[in-house]
Amino acid sequence: MDFSSFLTSLATSFVIFVALMLVFTWLSRKPGNHVVYFPSRILRGLDPLEGGPLSRSPLAWIRAAFAASEADIVAAAGVDTAVYLIFLSSVLGIFVMSGIILLPVLLPIAATDNSFKTAFDTNSNATFNNLDKLAMGNVHAGSSRLWAFLLANYWVSFVTFYVLWQAYKHVSDLRATARSSPAVRPEDYAVLVRDIPTDPQGQSKKEQVDSYFKALHPDSFCKSMVITDNKQANKIWEELEGYKKKLAHAEVVYTESKTTSKPEGTRPTNRIGFLGLIGAKVDTIDHCNEKINELATKLEIEQKEADKDKQQNAALVFFSNRPAAVSASQTLHAQMVDTWTVTEAPEPRQLIWENLTKKVYERQIRQYAVYGIVFLTVVFYMVPIAAVSAFTTLENLKRYLPFLKSVVDIKAVKTVLEAYLPQLALIVFLALLPALLMFLSKAEGIPSQGHVIRAASGKYFYFIVFNVFLGVTVGGTLYTSMKTIANKPKSAVNLLADSLPQNATFFVTYVALQFFVGYGLELSRLVPLIIFHLKKKFLCKTEAEVKAAWAPGDFGFATRVPKDMLIMLVVFCYSVISPIIIPFGVVYFGLGWLIARNQALDVYVPSFESYGRMWPHMHSRIVAALIIFQVLMFGYLGLKKFVYAPLMIPLIVISFVFSYACNSRFYRSFLNTPLEVAFKDTKEIPNLDSVYAAYIPPSLKPEKTENADHLEEGHTNVSKTETV
Amino acid sequence: MDFSSFLTSLATSFVIFVALMLVFTWLSRKPGNHVVYFPSRILRGLDPLEGGPLSRSPLAWIRAAFAASEADIVAAAGVDTAVYLIFLSSVLGIFVMSGIILLPVLLPIAATDNSFKTAFDTNSNATFNNLDKLAMGNVHAGSSRLWAFLLANYWVSFVTFYVLWQAYKHVSDLRATARSSPAVRPEDYAVLVRDIPTDPQGQSKKEQVDSYFKALHPDSFCKSMVITDNKQANKIWEELEGYKKKLAHAEVVYTESKTTSKPEGTRPTNRIGFLGLIGAKVDTIDHCNEKINELATKLEIEQKEADKDKQQNAALVFFSNRPAAVSASQTLHAQMVDTWTVTEAPEPRQLIWENLTKKVYERQIRQYAVYGIVFLTVVFYMVPIAAVSAFTTLENLKRYLPFLKSVVDIKAVKTVLEAYLPQLALIVFLALLPALLMFLSKAEGIPSQGHVIRAASGKYFYFIVFNVFLGVTVGGTLYTSMKTIANKPKSAVNLLADSLPQNATFFVTYVALQFFVGYGLELSRLVPLIIFHLKKKFLCKTEAEVKAAWAPGDFGFATRVPKDMLIMLVVFCYSVISPIIIPFGVVYFGLGWLIARNQALDVYVPSFESYGRMWPHMHSRIVAALIIFQVLMFGYLGLKKFVYAPLMIPLIVISFVFSYACNSRFYRSFLNTPLEVAFKDTKEIPNLDSVYAAYIPPSLKPEKTENADHLEEGHTNVSKTETV
After folding, report:
1. CB A146 within 8 A of CB A19
2. Is the pLDDT of residue A125 over 70?
3. Which residues of B touch A334 (CB under 8 A)?
4. Distance between CA atoms of B54 and B62, rounded to whole angstroms?
5. A36-48: average pLDDT
6. 3-state SS class at B63
7. CB count, 10 Å around CB of A295?
8. pLDDT > 70 fraction of chain B, expressed in percent and rounded
9. Which residues sit opposite B351 in a β-bridge?
10. Where are the beta strands (DSSP E) in B301-340?
11. Count of alpha carbons within 13 Å of B402, Cβ hemisphere only?
């Protein structure tokens, strides 16, 4: 890519961004769109536009985003979102502080040397452009100017250490503060017990759990809930809910028909066969009512049966106070370590019920199997795609689907198909990848949604780094030179370092595209807007259906974080080789931070709260990116025949030590709740009924609450202990 | 080594063994030697010879050793010794069960083939002897007879899995039973708190610890003991004890002198200068009395000062009940993970006071530094020894110590020196190695003696495996072919497998020597006997001095276990290649088990109790030996051009899975006390004064007990909670 096409691409992206911003400003002021642009505010019962539409100047959202304090963010979108913003601002901070030194120092040093000119004058000018002149590639091999580049690595690294240490401390405090707030959170009073052994005395699981925990926690044990096999109940409940929705829909249609066509109205009808296409025609309202009654009875029977006969080997155990639950969750209970596994309970809405009952060895086998599959997917993902691509050609299409021949032969269609058919498999695969990774992470047997998302995000990160970063950088060369690398692992670093500078411009364009077009779309919410209006016009009849149509969803950290990580990795790796990338990184993370704040305040609603459990994950990936950068720079300095290149080695060692120190200082308080935190501000005795009720799955709700009378004992028991 | 010299060596060893056995039978019946042969019984107040000397037939000890139940062993020598016996009997069981199948099957298969005859007939007969004919080396390459040897690996492995699984379960139960006994053990009521942060409010450490733990454990916190810097107090105390002993000695000497020389007696005198050689002559009794008074006052002052001004950043915290202490020791306390590190308290006699106050990062740095030193020691230990050997030649001796010339030139002395001087460095190094490893393990900052011994034993195991086993097997070839190995790691396995069979006879002789001579010496206790009689005759005057002279010591697991491990590794590795080694292994572990039982019942007194914490360590090393064996067999079968050799790979995988499964089932209950165990049989409320007093170091004893009045509050507090 030469310089002019780079500028063209940049300008185009910028124009699109400005256009999308204008669209956003215009559309977000229309009251009919408020549910798309301010769903979070509306759900929290706030006025979408503070001070009325007139005060909403085009840049008001920027002011609002800046003005919000961290406490506002936590209140609006939870600690996880606040931590995501800290991640963005930390990376932003690293790049700003790196840029302040690197840009004014390294650019002149590179520009005033002329390695490219001398080297390429005789060959061709094609690979030499103005951007490359500002990069490290322009410095002569073995030149003492390389000292500046070596020291730049130290500067970038130490800036990173400083920022990350501060950020980890900040997040740790944020987490502690949030966790020690006096609000009653059900998960603070519960522990998850898995791998309950078969009872030799033939007690029911419920009795077994109760007697076991009552014996070991005589003062603080309150009540238990044995996990039951709810598959059947869930199925009935979902069917029931479906009919309830259908009934509401049909009733609205009937009421409307009274006003539009004839005064007595047309009763809606439907067919009860496959997909409503075949079978007998019935009156929808009558049919639904009938079904609802029938299913409600069935559900009640099933609920009773589940509670009695379908008890599984896992349970939730409730304690009368926070410290007792924290302490229990961290204490080994059984002599046989693979029984009575006790862990902190996830939030009720995070629980993945079907994973709770998986046995300990099953979980381990699943985990390793999933790791194997992910490894194969990451490394060999091109193989099946190439195979499918070889099949999905225009010729095959014509041969196997002859009826399409006339359509395909139209010239315009043919051109498009020829361009996109080979990539179809790739596009489909990339679109399905996040779902596949979520599925795989869930299949590991992880009990909480938040953990699944972290696991999926980790897998996606590996995929992106391996395939996008390494794929683009080394490109085809890597595969052909696999043999050389296998014999001489050191040459891989050299190969990578060698091909790095050639791709700087590509990545600068990539980063710019990401923030201009990506953020433009993110802020303007064009896709959700169009979908909402289509749904509203053609599908939704009831209030609930409209609400479901504008449901904002959450941030989607599983894919969002790895994408940011890729940009971060790219900017890190080029920060010294081609410092001109730094401003683009700054804009990416600056703009990202601003827009994410806006979305946190106005749009997205978190689907769960893990109190920043994502942070150690982010932290270690930033450090990993830093180390990749340092290793590449070590290789590249070596290629430049700089004899002091080994001075990079202590820096790499320091990075590992830093990572280790951070872990040993902070990590365990993310893994387990410290007793200190659990003890803070827990004066009031919670309503343990509501704690218990929070964990009842919706399909079992009416039945299980009847059991709540047991709680009274537990409760009084507690107050007795506490008054001692 | 040819067959006849092998038999000669075996016969010699056996004769020595029989002679030592006779010596033992004869000497152990003399009442004057009872303190050497039955110290453990005497210390426990039992009659040394049950049923009087006449009933003590030469083989009575064998009957007694067999008759003792596991409970007797635990009562006599603790759980650790019982676990060591389980280790011996498990390995014995593995070898017996392996031998039952391997000997009758593999020996005929090997003997009836004749690879050696055809291969070596043309060359020489030197390396071919009758033992080799019974080994796998005698089977033709690629022969289908190798199937039997392949399957033998599976048999040995599955026997090992079975025996180890049973043993782990047994040890785990033994540990749980011992730990849940109603006896009050101080360490069950205490936790060790390290890394106490600097208090911002300027409280004393004691106040800080008390307020922190009172807040987090309001019901169960009882009392704390802040670790003080006792260096000064210890020094004074030791000096004081020394003078006390000296005084007692001098008084006995004085009393004796009254009966022997003149009726008024000779008052003993000594010089107070360097080593008692120079300086003024004083009356010993007066001098000691004077010093004792002086030091007692000094100690009292120092004790007060230590308690006030020398409080360190570590403490022992006492709880009113076992489960509370267990729970606290496993719960994360502080938000900053590197502060308030809480762990289970070691036994009072295991505490290494000077390590308690080491900070968390210091401990980690020390640990890695020690690992580095050990790695270098294991791999390069020959380098300094070779250097020293090059220096300690006869010529150098004569040159630098010319006054020895006349002595050295005597022919007999010269011969001896020429033989032993070059090996002097090696002998000294090997003698000092266990002490060096203990020192290094202690330097890691480990707070408990038992843990230090495990760590030292692990290091010694690496040393022995690397240097003795690999050293002998591969010998010089390994060092010369280092380059080949670096390029082709696979060839290391081949090289090793290739040189294995040649050394079978050497190792058979080694094993036989170990059990005949080693066990003979162990049982006859000739060295301790001689030392005791010499001391008694020339040095000991007081009762206490005599008692110290026959103090039996403990088993010395730090060196004993790795030595057994080496034999085990050798027998494992040769079990299929040369099954004739199995009977020798059986005798080694059988005899070892029998003698260890005798020593446990009659001789050794354990210096601490860790309730079988050594077992996971032993278990994982047995599995490691098994895997080394499997890998070597894989290589050797490959060398034998057996195309089904890859069938060994699943076996290796199974071994890893087995190891992993054992760990996840049992290990954590060795690391932490399960709540279940802590709750068993703790009806009585312990006397917490004695628990506290048990932890007071001897040098601080009189002072600290004064503090015990605080305990009363804690105590009553407890009973209140328990009655709720």
Report:
1. no
2. no
3. 669, 674, 676
4. 16
5. 80
6. helix
7. 20
8. 85
9. B448
10. 311-319
11. 1
In degrees rounded to 5, what are phi and psi of residue A370? -65, -40
Helix (H) or strand (E) segment spanning residue B282: strand B281-283
Q: Is A628 within 8 Å of A566 (Cβ atoms)?
A: no
Token pair recorded at residue A194? 């898995």
B59 CB neighbour count, 10 Å cutoff: 10
| B683 in contact with A, Cβ within 8 Å | no
Subunit contact B332:A216, Cβ cutoff 8 A: no
Q: What pLDDT, in 10s, does the model give residues A241-282?
A: 888 888 888 888 888 777 776 777 777 777 776 666 777 777
Max distance between CA atoms of chain B, in angstroms, equals 93
| Residue labelled with tokens 């507690």 | A718
| Chain A residues in contact with B489 (beta carbon < 8 A) | none
Locate A687 and state its tokens.
């309503």
- Please state the φ and ψ torsions of residue B465, each to the nearest 5 degrees: -65, -50
User: Is the Cα torsion angle B628, B630, B636, B639 positive or negative in sign?
Assistant: negative
CA dihedral A497, A502, A508, A513 (to 10 degrees): -110
Q: Check if the beta carbon of residue B693 is closer than 8 Å to that of residue B708.
A: yes
Residues in chain A closer than 8 A to B173 (CB atoms): 335
Q: Count of residues for chain A?
A: 724
Strand partners, B190: B318
- Stretches where chain B sits below pLDDT 50 are 1, 51-54, 119-128, 476-480, 703-724
| Token output for A293 | 């009654």
Q: How far apart are CA A390 and CA A424, in angstroms?
A: 11
Question: Widest CA span of chain A, in angstroms?
Answer: 93
**What is the pLDDT, as a whole number, of residue B129?**
57
Per the listing, tokens 């733990």 go with: B213
Q: Tokens for B507?
A: 């190792």
pTM score, two decimals?
0.81
B331 and A336 within 8 Å at the Cβ level: the answer is no
Return d(Cα B455, Cα B439) in angstroms, integer: 11
**CB pair distance less than 8 Å for A676 and B219:** no
A675 to B721: CB separation less than 8 angstroms, yes or no:
no
| Closest alpha carbon within chain B to A719 | B724
Q: Closest chain B residue to A658 measured between Cα atoms?
A: B361
Containing B11, the helix (H) or strand (E) segment is helix B3-28
CB contact under 8 A, A721 and B724: yes
- CB contact at 8 A, A159 and A94: yes
Neighbours of A465 (CB within 10 A): 21
Task: Take residue B74 and report the two structure tokens written for it.
Answer: 């635990």
Distance (Å) of CA A30 to CA A27, A53, A169, B153: 6, 9, 42, 79
